[in-house]
Structures are given as structure tokens and as C-alpha cells.
Amino acid sequence: MEKELWKGNEAIAEAAIRAGCDCFFGYPITPQSEVPEYMSAHLPKAGGVFLQSESEVAAINMVYGAAGAGMRAMTSSSSPGISLKQEGITYIAGAELPCVIVNCMRGGPGLGTIQPGQGDYYQATRGGGNGDYRTLVLSPSNVQEAVDFVQEAFDIADQYRNPVMVVMDGLIGQMMEPIEWHPVPKRDLPPKDWATTGRKDRDHNNIINSLYMDPNECDRHNEHLAEKYALMEKNEVRWEEKECEDAEVIITAYGTPARIALTALETLRAEGLKVGLFRPITLWPFPEAALRKLSKADHVKAFVDVEMSSTGQMIDDVRLSVEGRKPIRYLGHAGGVMPTVEEMVDAVKAALKEGK
Amino acid sequence: MAIVYEKSRGLTDEELHYCPGCHHGIIHKLVAESLVELGLLDDAIGVCPVGCSVFAYKYFNCDMQEAAHGRAPAVATGIKRTHPHQAVFTYQGDGDLASIGAAEIVHAAMRGEKFTTIFVNNAIYGMTGGQMAPTTLIGQKATTCQTGRTKEQAGMPIRMAELLSTLEGCVYAERVCVTDIANINKAKKAIKKAFQKQMNGEGFTFIEVLSTCPTNWGMTPLKAVEWLKDNMVPYYPLGVIKETAPETAEVK
Ligand SMILES: Cc1ncc(C[n+]2csc(CCOP(=O)(O)OP(=O)(O)O)c2C)c(N)n1
Ligand code: SF4
Ligand SMILES: [Mg+2]
User: Fold this and answer.
1) A253 burial class (0-12, 13-18, 19+ CB within 10 angstroms)?
2) Whose CA is nearest to atom 1 of ligand 1?
3) Considering the entire predicted model, what is its pTM?
4) Among A119, A154, A353, B6, which residue carries the largest CB count within 10 Å?
């Protein structure tokens, strides 16, 4: 297949259009503004609706309305904007509406920096808004994956009637890379017979709602949601393992740090050190079982978790998977500073010493 | 026997939960009747607020979406933009629309979104137990201004119909009340006209209905009607606040 050079943010916008996105609602914020810009120019030509909203709060609620009326709806933003969308996301999850949300993460907290970051891991994987809910979170580590995941995200969302987030650090949004356009993967999807499209000759009204005044009903609704999340945990977990078969130290990383780790792996392997990479692709559901299995292997002595976060966030999921069997080191920067190959090499060597 | 009165087909058989003397029920009826008489019911998609009318999705006999507090205009925008030929409306209280959702309603009006908003102004937060709303009158007591609202502390009450009228996208804004037969008839006419203008694609249409909350005003239903007439109407004048002729109203 032919390769084309695309900027990450424009590529995911094009990917969404190719995946049948009907409408996009968004608000400008660096480093994701190319998504609404591209959508404004190209989505209407493809027969879709583009609207620049007055805020991220409005954008996500427009997504709610359109998704509730049966449309393939999408919004994108970056960290502070995603914070504002949390209200809408919990309502969307509660009302079981499918939609696609892209977070092109920057450094925080607060206004932070417009440089790439990974400080929204908790927010993405723990719900972020109020109540017990989960969003399925896909994390690409290059532009090709970003494109492929966005294309697939719409079907995943429709299948489970649940928001799907594509979470990537700003670097992937801003970077240009050669990509191939893969055919959009198609799932067997249930009809949207619940959508509010006007009753016409239906014998009942369709209602989009997340309110249950009766606590027992609300409990049942939550149980139903939990069953759905369990199904996603069973069927949708994705990860990648590189050279873990004999590894003594395993680096855990996602997004851009996972990509930098590939060079660290090369360097260390060239020195004869046995190092592997474990890269979660779905941040939720987290590939807990796979990582747990690795942590039980005798050859694995230690883990090094690397994130673009000062305190580490994914490291909590790594800990929950490793369950104290092996030591875990942390290497992280926030505020737009990337962990370097040299730092990773040093951290792995220190971990090896510690693990012996 | 001839039927002289019956419940509108635009309402379900669900029992309304509103307090005695609350005008939400009358306003529901007028919206429902308007949709039926205009032949729009089977095509309509309504959006209800968070407030005492949160269960409006059970009462209106059409497809409905329940929005987060204040966000109904954004939700309706998402619906109408993707379903441009259907009748779309929001039904919102004054806390919902004029306070937490002020940005959403202003920008929907600015864009000239082609849906109709029914704004129920009862000068109080009904559902949460009578706190001050942005529409609470000066001197009016509420649980968060127990000696009465003052200008110094909370500013002057907001007149939403007038405010939205300054926006070109808002082609029709009328303030009505439902305190008696004559006013009920006027209110119904206004609601019907708003939907007609919406379906003509003229722009954003807004009906503000002054409403009672006997429970949180601490009055009998009859006393509440009197209070509305004596106190709300002077500050919130009834009538057409804005009506743009269709040809100039066209937002292309
Ligand atoms: C984000 C959020 N904040 C606060 C509330 C609590 N709340 C529910 S209804 C309401 C006020 C509603 O008042 P109004 O819109 O005037 O409607 P009314 O009950 O008077 O008809 C408030 C503050 C909420 N549900 N969500
Ligand atoms: S509390 Fe007030 S607004 Fe709410 S139902 Fe009762 S009278 Fe109506
Ligand atoms: Mg009120």
C-alpha cells in the first residue's frame, strides 16, 4: 500500500471521516487544534456536520445530543479541555451513548504547558467524571496507530454503546509521519433502535437518560454497566510485548515513551543486557493479566515504568498487576520534557543491580 | 355525548409529579397541544433540563433526551444540526437556563440554532428547595437570601428574553404567563408561533413563561398567582420582546 505523509492531528480527523463520522463538535486548544481545523474544511464536504462550540462543555453536550439521536459523533481536545468535558462524558456513559473522544495530551496541572504530556492517565482510565463508569481508552504510539485506532473507535463505541477515548500525547498529534490507509475494520453492530430520531410510527417514545430516582433501579443500571465493562475487559484488552521472552528487566510505557524505549532496548541489547518492553495499548481495560504473568516469570527481575508524568500514573496499574512480586522503578518527566534513551538505559541498569 | 375537553395526545398517561398550583403542568399541556396541532409530535425531539421538570421526558409523548444541568441548548444543537428537518425543543427552568446554562443558551441564540426554547421562569430554584435564582426579585426571600435578595449582594435579576433579543440569531422572543384563560391562550399562541418559525427555518425562538412555585414561595396556589401578577409582571413585562420579519431573519 502507498505511504502518505500526514500530520498526526490531521490524520486522525481524516481517519474519522473515513470511518463514517457524521458530526464533530470542538473547541480550539493547542496541541489539537488541527483536528477541528481539518474537520471544518473536510467534514461538511463528506456530508457531515462541523460546529465550533462556545466551550468544551458545550461541545461534549452537542456530542451527547447528536449521539443520542443516532449519529456517529466525535470531539477532540487537549488536557484542560478534557477536564471540562468530564461532566458530559459521565452523562454519555450513564446514558450509554457511543462517541469518540480524542485527548491530545499536554502537560499540566492547570494551564501547564502546550508541550506533550501524559498526566491525564488517571482521568482517562478512572472515569474522570462522577459515578462508576469506564471509557475504553486506546493509546497509539505513532501516527499510523492513531489513524487505525480512530477508525476502529467508532465501531467499538457503537458495539458497546460507550464512549471510546483515543489518548495520545501531543507529540503524536503534532508529528508528521508516513502512514498507510488501512481499510476501516467493521464489526457486527446492533441497530440503533434506541435513538431519538422522532417517534414516527414507532409504538413507544425513545428516551435518552441517565437519571434513576429509585435507588434499586439505579443499582440495577450500574450493575448492567458493570457487566458491560466486564465484557470489554474480556474482549478488548490490547498490549504489545517486545523481547520479553528472556527479559530480566521489563520497561512498561505507552505512547511516545514506549517508542523512545525501543531505542533504549536496542542500545541495551547491543550491550548484552536482557531487556524487554511491555506496552499497554488499551489503558482501560489495562492488560493486567498479561503483565501479571510476566511478573511471575523467573527470568524477570525488575520493572522500569516510564511516563511523561512527574509522579507516575500508569505505574499504579503496573503495581496492581505485579502485586509486589518484583521491584518497580519509576522514570518520569512532566511539563513537556521527554524521558531520554540515556535515562532509560541508566534506569534499567540500576534496576538490574537492584533485582539481582 | 360531545367531547368538550380531553387530555392532549401530546402528553403520556404518566401522572405529573408537580405540586398543587405549580404552573409547570399547564405549560407542559400547552407545548404538547401545540406540537399536536401543528402536526409535529411524531417528528419532535425534546430536551429536558435538571430542575423540577427533570421528568418531562416521561410526560411529553415524543422522543426525549435528558440533559445535564444547563446544557439543554448544546444537546439540542447536536440534535437539530444533525436532524435539521425535525422539530426540536428545550424545556428549561431559570436556574438551568439563566445561571448554570447561561453560556449555552446565549451561544445557541447567537448561532441562530433552529430550535425552540420554553423557558420557565419561577424566580427560584424549585427542585433543590427554594434557593436564590438569577431571576429572584429584589426583596424576594429564598433559602440562600433569607432576608430577601439585595442588589448589593446579588445584583439585579436577569431578563433573559430581553438579553437574547439583542442577538440577531434570536428571531422571536415573547414573554407570557399562564395565570388565567386569556393569558393561557396568549401563551399557547406564542408557543405555536415559535414552533412555526422554527419549522420555517427562521432562527432561534424563545418563549419565556412566568411561572409559580407556591411550595418554595411559601404561598397558597391562589396567592402565588396574585404574587406573580403583582411582582413578577412589573419587572418581567409580558408581550413580544422581539420578532424579526421572516425574510430578514433568514440565517444563511
Ligand atoms: C451540575 C449540577 N449542579 C447543581 C445541581 C442541583 N440542581 C438540581 S435542579 C437545580 C435548580 C433548578 O432550578 P430551576 O432551573 O429554576 O428549575 P425549577 O426547579 O425551578 O423548575 C439545581 C441547582 C445539579 N443537578 N447539577
Ligand atoms: S417545587 Fe415549585 S416548581 Fe417545583 S413542582 Fe413544586 S411548585 Fe412546581
Ligand atoms: Mg426555577
Assistant:
1) buried
2) B69
3) 0.97
4) A154
d(CA A96, CA A86): 15
Residue B251 has pLDDT above 70, yes or no: no
Q: How large a percentage of chain B has pLDDT more than 70?
A: 98
Interchain contact B43–A (C-beta under 8 A):
yes
Q: Which one, of A103, A22, A29, A35, lies nearest residue A63 by Cα?
A: A22
Comparing CA positions, the residue from A162, A143, A172 lying closest to residue A101 is: A162
pLDDT at position A269? 98
Q: Which three cell numbers stand for residue B227?
A: 404574587
Q: How far is CA A318 from CA A251, A289, A305, A327, A329, in A?
A: 11, 11, 8, 11, 11
DSSP state of B14: P
Residue corresponding to grid cell 438579553: B163
Q: Which three cell numbers stand for residue B243?
A: 420578532
Does some domain include residue B2? no
- Residue A208's CB is within 10 A of a number of other CB atoms, namely 27
The pLDDT tens digits for A151-210 are: 999 999 999 999 999 999 999 999 999 999 999 889 999 999 999 999 999 999 999 999
User: Chain B contacts of A49, Cβ < 8 Å?
Assistant: 81-82
We report the CATH number of the domain holding residue B70 as: 3.40.50.970
Of B44, B66, B103, the CB nearest to A55: B103
ipTM tops the 0.90 cut: yes
- For residue B4, tell me if it sits in a domain: no
Geometric angle at alpha carbon A224, from A220 and A229, rounded to 5°: 145
Half-sphere exposure of B40 (CA within 13 A, CB side): 28
Task: Evaluate whether A236 touches A309 at the Cβ level (below 8 Å).
Answer: no
Q: What does the alpha-carbon distance between residue B137 and residue B116 come to, in Å, rounded to a whole number?
A: 26
Residue B252 lies in a domain: no
Within a domain: B88: yes
User: Strand locations in A285-345, DSSP E?
Assistant: 302-307, 328-332
From A54, A61, A207, residue closest to B67, measured CB to CB: A61
d(CA A32, CA A101): 12
- Closest by Cα among B25, B23, B103, B27 to B70: B103
CA separation for the pair A306, A312 (Å, rounded): 8
> Residues in chain A with pLDDT < 50?
none
Residues in contact with ligand 2 (CB, 6 Å cut-off): B 18-19, 22, 24, 52, 122, 126-127, 213-216
Ordered by where they begin, the domains of chain A are: 4-235 (3.40.50.970), 240-355 (3.40.50.920)
Tell me what pLDDT residue B252 has: 46
- Compute the nearest-CA separation of B180 from chain A (Å): 32
Pairing of strands B239-243, B170-177: antiparallel
Q: Are A6 and A14 within 8 A, CB to CB?
A: yes
Ligand 3 centroid from CA B124, angstroms: 4
Q: Which domain holds residue B181?
A: 24-241
DSSP letter assigned to residue B138: B
- The tally of domains found in chain B comes to 1
Residue B248 reports pLDDT greater than 70? no
Q: Which atom of ligand 2 is nearest to the CA of B214?
A: 7
pLDDT at site B154: 98
% of chain A with per-residue pLDDT over 70: 100
Question: CA B103, CA B106: separation in Å to the nearest integer?
Answer: 5
Report how far ligand 2's centroid is from the alpha carbon of B226 (Å).
16
C-beta of residue A65 within 8 angstroms of C-beta of residue B86 = no
